[in-house]
């Protein structure tokens, strides 16, 4: 008896037909920490989607957790359009300044985001999502993969000295970048076969949190430029002066995260590493989203060959499947 789909050759079943297409690898994104440089994550995700890459697992640390949360919630398009409109005044209006545990509480920013977009539970998402935080009491790395998306993201975004700690399920959480700045291990543990890692902390040792550079000089009003200079003047020193508060915080964070990233990625290297060229970005340059997003898109274009080499051509797999179905039909 002949098996379905096989032809007879000399009285025997012919098994020389086209081989089935190999199964598509599960693709994971490890979105790293890096404050304002993290807007590049938006451009990278958009570039991958335009290339036809299906992302199955998203692991995020700090700003990577926020952007990743917007993506898995289906809000990345609107979120990206919104951050492009941010001015210096908008950034400061979203920051509820405090000196209790950090300079910024973060409630305004995340509250505003929740008003604009949905906040589904991670368990209800189509994609697997996990964020990385640091338990303030034990210093242990904590993976959050249940509960509201924004709570998981906020727990990961508590940069010491800048954002206040966040209480998650009775435990106070600090920024995940303290223990795992580029969460390759988390993406792999949650099922990714191929991990695309975005490292925002390379080439940044010596960079500062703010350099008193007035943002968007051609488009900002004199009042906004004055506001920026006044606020950064409280915390950052000029060239040749003693380091200011933000200088010390930013340099310490950059050094720490760079060293931890090198160590973690040496032990568990991703298949693809993307490094946005944003060395002139200060940690508080959230108003420069367009530049970072554009760099993210360019980065995907520059690495298209490597990406396709690891995951194959998504369109080719689809076409091969369609061809087999036509033959069998």
TrEMBL record:
Residues 1-27 are annotated as: Disordered. A motif (GXSXG) lies at residues 60-64. One of its GO terms (molecular function) is hydrolase activity. A motif (DGA/G) lies at residues 175-177. Residues 7-16 have a biased composition (Basic and acidic residues). The keyword Lipoprotein does not apply. Pfam families: Patatin. The active site is at residues 62, 175. Residues 29-188 form the PNPLA domain. InterPro entries: Acyl_Trfase/lysoPLipase (IPR016035), NTE (IPR050301), PNPLA_dom (IPR002641). GO terms for biological process: lipid catabolic process. It comes from the Bacteria. Keywords: Hydrolase, Lipid degradation, Lipid metabolism. PANTHER family: NEUROPATHY TARGET ESTERASE/SWISS CHEESE D.MELANOGASTER, NTE FAMILY PROTEIN RSSA. This is Patatin-like phospholipase RssA. It comes from Alloalcanivorax marinus. The lineage of its organism: Bacteria, Pseudomonadati, Pseudomonadota, Gammaproteobacteria, Oceanospirillales.
């Amino acid at each position: 008896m002949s098996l379905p789909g096989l032809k007879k050759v000399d009285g025997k079943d012919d098994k020389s037909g086209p081989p089935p297409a190999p199964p598509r690898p599960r693709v994971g994104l490890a979105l790293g920490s890096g404050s304002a440089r993290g807007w590049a994550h938006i451009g990278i995700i958009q570039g991958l989607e335009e290339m036809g890459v299906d992302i199955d697992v998203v692991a995020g640390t700090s700003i990577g957790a926020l952007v990743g949360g917007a993506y898995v919630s289906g809000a990345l398009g609107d979120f990206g359009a919104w951050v492009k409109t941010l001015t210096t005044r908008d950034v400061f209006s979203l920051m509820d300044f405090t000196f209790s545990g950090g300079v910024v509480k973060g409630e305004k920013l995340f509250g505003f985001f929740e008003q604009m977009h949905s906040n589904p539970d991670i368990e209800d998402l189509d994609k697997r999502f996990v964020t990385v935080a640091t338990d303030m009491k034990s210093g242990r790395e904590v993976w959050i993969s249940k509960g509201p998306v924004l709570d998981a993201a906020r727990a990961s975004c508590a940069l010491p000295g800048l954002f206040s700690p966040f209480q998650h399920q009775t435990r106070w959480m600090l920024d995940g970048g303290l223990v795992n700045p580029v969460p390759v291990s988390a993406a792999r543990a949650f099922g990714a076969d191929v991990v695309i890692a975005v490292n925002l902390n390379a080439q940044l040792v010596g960079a500062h949190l703010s350099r008193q550079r007035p943002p968007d000089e051609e488009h900002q009003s004199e009042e906004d430029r004055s506001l920026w200079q006044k606020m950064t003047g409280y915390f950052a020193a000029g060239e040749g002066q003693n380091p200011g508060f933000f200088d010390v915080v930013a340099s310490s964070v950059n050094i720490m995260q760079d060293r931890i990233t090198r160590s973690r990625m040496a032990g568990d290297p991703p298949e693809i590493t993307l490094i946005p060229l944003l060395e002139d970005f200060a940690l508080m340059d959230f108003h420069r989203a367009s530049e970072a997003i554009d760099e993210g898109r360019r980065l995907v274009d520059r690495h298209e060959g490597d990406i396709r080499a690891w995951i194959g051509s998504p369109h080719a797999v689809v076409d091969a499947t369609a061809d087999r179905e036509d033959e069998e039909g």
